[in-house]
Each structure stands twice: as structure tokens, then as C-alpha cells.
Amino acid sequence: MRKTLTFTAVSAAVLAAALLSGANASAVEMQVLIGGQPARLSAWPHAPYLSVGSLNELREHYETIRPYLPDGPFVMENQWVVPLPGADFRLFPEDPEYIETFSPNGEYAALVKRHPAGPVFPRTSQHLRVMKTTGETLWEMEDGPWEVVATDDGHIVGQVEDIRAPIGVAVYDAAGACLCTRSPLFTERPRWSYAAELRVLSAPAMVLALGMEGVCALSVTGDVLWQYTVPDTDQRPQITWVDRDPLGRGLFAVIRYPRDVSVELLDPGTGQVTATLLSHQPIPFPESLSLMGTHAALRSWPTGLGLLDWRTGELVCHTNELEGQTPIPTDGPATASDSPPRFACALGAGLDLTVFDDNGKCVWWTMMTPEFTRLVISSAGSTLCALNTRGRVRDPDEPAEFLGAVLFHVEVSPSSGLRPRYRSGQ
Questions:
Q1: Residue 344 pLDDT > 50
Q2: Does pLDDT of 211 surpass 90?
Q3: Is this prediction's pTM over 0.70?
Q4: How many angstroms separate the CA atoms of 418 and 414, rounded?
Q5: Smallest Cα–Cα separation from 375: which of 293, 290, 317, 262?
Q6: Which end of the chain is more exposed for a tag (fewer CB within 10 A), N or C?
Q7: Could you give the CA distance from residue 195 to residue 146 in angstroms, rounded to a whole number?
Q8: Three-state secondary structure along 389-410?
């Protein structure tokens, strides 16, 4: 009896083994560094042309690899790599007892040591230390805010609350003096006042407190600038992503509903909606933007993958099939290019790195072990970077540890997207 290997989430590892060990396969074996340690990498049918897996290799290839690295600081070999304006970075020691956050310009660091939070304890930190990333300690305090962010001029905004009360914030200047306390921060509805994330933006400088159903904008000195509330709250929406629009249209807010997704553009000065990019569209969720900001990669399960024109909000393509029949099991974020518009993702167990064109057709793919599941494609769609990271990139509670990256040339030809059909057994 002949057994067909079907490419699904369950059989991805089996298929990878078959491809890499099959009679017609010729995998490239490479010695690389991952997290500063030697490792063996296998790839087929395409091999990477560059590998970066140590601090020394990062220094050597930083200008090349920079566009593909995680947003903001990340940990490598027990050191924080803090990007600076321009093509440079600064190292800052990681302290496993503290949660470190950094100002957008990389000049300031805030270190929080938490104590356990229980039902009768206020959510305060055991110790807070504010430093310059050059090593100078500016000020410290005990029983400080539970979560903090640092602005480009050294102000600290921190969450201060009892776990039974709506969120509040305290603002400190660069010398540690408390400028003000705002509690409760949200004033319109209680549901989204209990969960918030603080984000710092530059030019103009502001701090955004992101709730489930609203956004509150603060000046760096703690003044409330505006509040935005998600419409249609009876549908239990959740704000999943707020950031500055790369095309210069203010801020954008991605709002996830149980069955669809919306994207609003907001005036950063007033919080008013200036345009609706998507309105309750039953499509996968925008997950990442192309490097120039013209397209967004879409991904969610079970609705598949897609490509969105970020300039107009028009759905370019959407697919939940591969080769017309096989469901797409995605693992790791999707990524999009600008021109030509393409999107890519890691399929299955992260072993199949696949690039699609703007019609949803596979135009390039390769297998690789070990797993590098976070992908970034270049603006021109001609380079694919696969990153090996550990930790959640945007979660301050867990450092984004960068273990390594490999770069592939994406050379599209009539045969580059064809997948061989492998059969094994009798």
C-alpha cells in the first residue's frame, strides 16, 4: 500500500524529513551560530546566503540585517541590543531579576523588579531603577509602579493601581520627582479600564494607554490629551494594535471583533477618526506592515492568509488553500513586501518558508531546520529573512531574545513555486 504525505500542520515535520532525506533531495548542510552557539542548519531546495547568530556577527552585518530585526531592543547573548538613531546600537546588560524597558531613542532604561501580586496586594513593584543606557543610574525608588515606560527626554510613566480598581498612572520627571497621578485614567466605560498597555511614541511625543476598547493619550508630563472609544462595543471588540501610520496619516487602530476586523485612522492631536480603512471585514487580521508601509500581511486561523493594500484598505487577495486543496497551517507571523506586492509565512511546524504573489499563488518556497518561524520580507520582495526568536517581541514581561537570522535570495521563476509530490511506503 502506498502512503501519501499530505502537507498539513500534523504532518509538516514528517514531510520535512521526507524532503530532506528523500532520494531526489539534496539538502544543504551548514554550520552556523544560533544564540552564539554552534549549530547545524539544513535547507532545501534553497540555501541562505547569510547567517547572523552571535553578537560578533551582528556587529559585522548590522547594516544589512537591521531592517529585518525585531522592533525595538532585544536580548542577545545576555545583552540588550538597543537600536540608536542611524545604523548603530548600544549594548546594555540584561538583569534576570528585572523587567527592562527603553525609551524610543535608546537613551534611557527603566528597570522594574516586581513582587508577587495577590488578591490583597496592590500591583506595585519592589524596586524601580532609572538609568541612562550608557550606565549612569539617575534615580531609584521602592514600591514604585508595576509597569513603566520611558520617554525620549527621560520622563517615566508607570501604572499604579490596586488590582481591584481601574488603572491609574503616575508620571515622574528625569530626576525622579512625581509630577502627577491620574487615577482612574479612563473615564467613559469600566470594561476597558482594567487592562492596559503603555506605549511611547515620538514626534510628537506622547504616551498611549491601550485598553481593550479604548485608547487614552497622555503628554509626557501626564496631561490627558484625548480618549478614543471603539464603536460597536456590544460586539465585544478588542484593540489589538495601535501605532503611527507609516504613510503619515496619523495613528492607526486595528480592532478585532468576534467575526471580523476594522481599522481606523486617528488624528494624533485629537483622537478623532479621520478615516476608516476597514469596516467589519470578515478577513484575516492585519499582522504586519511592509517595510515601506504600502501593504499589510493578513493571517488568522482558520480564515487563512491575505494581502491588504494599506493605502486604500482594498483586499488584494485572500487564500486558505495551497495548490487548490490543502488548508494552510500557519505558524509564526506573516510578512508583506511593497513592490511587487508579495506575502510570506512559515507553514506547518515552521519548516516550510513560503512566498506568495498578489494572486495568492506560491512563487517560492524552501524547507529549513531548525525552525526559524518569524519572517520578514524585503520591500522589493527579493530577500526573505527568517529569524529565530524566543519570547514575545512586544511583551515587556518577557524579553525578546534574538537567537539568529538567515537571509535567502527570493528568485522567482516558472518552477520556483512548484512543490514535488512525495510518496513513501508500499
A1: yes
A2: no
A3: yes
A4: 8
A5: 290
A6: N
A7: 13
A8: EECCCCCCCCCCEEEEEEEEEC
